[in-house]
């Protein structure tokens, strides 16, 4: 513990700016992945343990597209859409077969998907480390704000994830489709009885969740190395975020992701050794005291 | 899913099915390996990691041995016998590594083992070899205690890989020379939080302080192994403002760390010393390699500067489609040692006979910095390999200006270290 | 209570039969390596024994009580590490170290279980996973004690006791087989006991169990501790076999494999998980020999079983048999009607 240093950091504008931005950078990407996980659970009632694999797929799709076209925008779209399409197919052909069945069955289908996707990526791209490369326009010196430094790519990344999060929230809470999706989460029979194609909606929501993970993967591809199996650590972190925030709650995912991001950023200054243990402890504590999470509905 | 609350008849059935299946499986498994061509082929088993995040460790190890064996076989083999590699994926699980190794020996007729496991898997294989004393060469474990600790000694096990303590001494010698010359007093470390990362960092610091007592370690950060993001560690460095940083990060983690550090331009003010940046797949993956980073040698086609080394790099790359890794040369050299030992025993593969030949064997090799590489007789470990350090340049070959560290100095310091540890 | 008495009577008859079957099973296990004297068969069977025991103990929670634990490997690891550390200390004999490892793990399961069993359904799964991750990270970071990622190095000494030398491969195998059959026999008694039937009631209708005055939390905690203890025995066998203990024992993949084993074999037939362990190891064995795309093959097999058979192999077979018997008109001594319940 080094609380003096921590206090000193809060007192200095440059340190505070850098560390807050660090927390946002770590947190917002985590939020993108976790919001997809949370969305799928909230509407479909299944835990997509293969979510990390879609993050990986997004990164590899973006990598492939950037290599072919050289366009960063195209790469981002490829990552999101590619992961989304694979997500829809996965839902239609596999996941939808185990709805309403044992939790174990869902777990196994996801486990199989992780094994298959990891192996396919290894076969198609090789086991070497890959990096997508930074688009030219971001290859500039970090931006200085009140003595603190923020790289321009991270500013873009924050803007993107914030924008996507906002769109997601608006889409679910302010549009007709969003209303239907919320209704679907509560009473699928009734939605079906109204003549709405619930199967299509399920597939769409699952695909959207996977597309969110894919977007995160694509955004990470320029700065995080790509390897088969890279989804695992992201899965574990976003899983923790989702549980703390409340399974099914998008605002909860945001709050928990930022909480974790800021804990890591300031933890690195003040209590470097506890950060990881703290995350597990926090998750355990939330589960014991309020199993549905900070923002989850009370009745699970 | 249907659940039966009653278990009686079903249980009998289960038992019957089980026993029947067990017998059938047993019959299948117990069929011994039919070694029709046993006289012609010497099978060498290799447990290694071929899946998951570090799959490249296994794939490049496998390719290196295959390349070496194909060259030996094309040149007529060993007295009419050819070498064949049988590799198995342990999926990075030590218990699986142990089982696979036993299987390779007991069931697949492998007469020798090249252990391509990392860290914990290497120790698991080591214990199997204690039980089943065939010849085994560990090729990917850099943990010093595997061969340095006499309590762990196994008569037929050798290590043909670089070793943590050698790298620590070499790193200390090299880095202290630069720190003295450039006045780098304030140091920070950033290494992965697991036994290897911590040991490696502690040993490096021990030796650099020995050679330059004026340096001061102002901070140490320990990111998780396989962490995707290092931003909090990088911005910590911005706050601490050290003059130099040591990092034992490796592989994909190191790629991410360098690229994320680039965004903050931290290597303009902080001199980086890396234990693993010199591995070609890491160097080629990084899109913007900052110039002037210091790294230990892992592999380079231009060092040692010998035609045979370039030939090895070309031969390996034509098979693997990428430059050799550190693991690749270690396995290639292990295959060379095995071939030479078999030559000297006239193709006899008994563990004891081969071990007697390998003890203290000196071999011409593309990787020898001096004349030869040696498997030291006292502790069965490789010496004479490149322990040089170099500086990065943005374009291939990515690392230049290798400064060799004299092996005599490394060995002297290693002997002192062994005394301190109670190993000698 | 009348019901209970009847069950005790049934149990006695059942016990005799169980003992007989256990003896027979043990004889087969001991005879197999004599009939096929090949060391790799022995290795294979020890592996099936260790993982089979882990899967069996997990099924006490999953199949019997309906508690889907994602963190069962924590107790497997705890058994292996406590046993390995005690043996390396050189102060205790093998049986004493085993006792201590099982006891210590049971205590650990008691503490963790006391917190976990209060949670329902998926939240129970999550918190068991969280505890497992916590224990795994302790093993990784407490390097001085556990050796961190490199595991317990230097082998686990196996000094002879009572004339039994576990350093000898045949003896080790026989020892593991005996432990295995004893554990199965004990679990069988739980499976068939009034306690076992109470657990089934908790699984199928917790509200009813509660209404009948069953202390649900205590019952769940009891089976949680028992399952942890048996899992630690599996860990001890594995530690003896590989002569070491490794953090991977406590990683989520080990729990995942155990879950896959019980799914593959079946959750409702008592020995289903052992069948699953056997099938998975057989699959593993041959797949790693013939291809490096192990994940691809295993993944496809899992999908085929989950989406094709829709249940474990033994469950599938038992179901099929029951349906055939039901179809045959006058069933002599009709078995207790198979109650079915849609899970979910």
Automatic annotation (TrEMBL), chain A:
One GO biological process this protein is involved in is: amino acid transport
Molecular function, one GO term: transmembrane transporter activity
In terms of superkingdom, the source organism counts as: Bacteria
Entry coiled-coil feature ranges: none
GO cellular-component terms in the record? plasma membrane
Recite the UniProt keywords alphabetically: Amino-acid transport, Cell membrane, Membrane, Transmembrane, Transmembrane helix, Transport
Transmembrane parts of this sequence: 49-66, 72-91, 103-125, 145-172, 200-219, 239-262, 269-289
- Known InterPro entries for this protein? ABC_transp_permease, BCAA_transport_permease
State the compartments where it is located: Cell membrane
**Topology in the lipid bilayer:** Multi-pass membrane protein
The record's family statement is: Belongs to the binding-protein-dependent transport system permease family. LivHM subfamily.
Record-given protein name: Branched-chain amino acid ABC transporter permease
Upper lineage is: Bacteria, Pseudomonadati, Pseudomonadota, Alphaproteobacteria, Acetobacterales
UniProtKB/TrEMBL annotation, chain B:
Give me the segments passing through the membrane: none
Kindly indicate whether the keyword Glycoprotein belongs to this entry. no
Q: InterPro entries in the record, alphabetically? A: BCAA_transport, Leu-bd, Peripla_BP_I, TAT_signal
Record's keyword annotation contains Signal: yes
Instruction: Give the keywords, sorted.
Output: Amino-acid transport, Signal, Transport
Q: Where is the Leucine-binding protein domain?
A: 42-383
Top-level taxon of origin: Bacteria
Q: Which GO terms describe its biological process?
A: amino acid transport
Its family remark reads: Belongs to the leucine-binding protein family.
- Entry protein name: ABC transporter substrate-binding protein
